[in-house]
Amino acid sequence: MANAATAAVNDDRGRRFAKDQLKAFVERVERLEEKKKAIADDIRDVYAEAKANGFHVKALRTVVRLRKQDINERKEEEAVLETYLNALGMLAP
Question: What is the pTM assigned to this prediction?
Fold first, then answer.
């Protein structure tokens, strides 16, 4: 009988530990989501400031995206784009 009681206590501790651990994970993710939203808001503000200063935001976003790419990856993307534009007759001969 004592073994059953001890097992029940250990089982309760295990569940409590799992519950506390789960809660900790959820709270960490929630804090990170809050930080992510704050950063996204900051980025939006920078683009709004750039627009207010006369910069073309779509082009600015493209520049930021291209700067993240490896130079070879970027050259390959540009070559494919040029091929497609040429095939559609969108480039001057």
Answer: 0.69
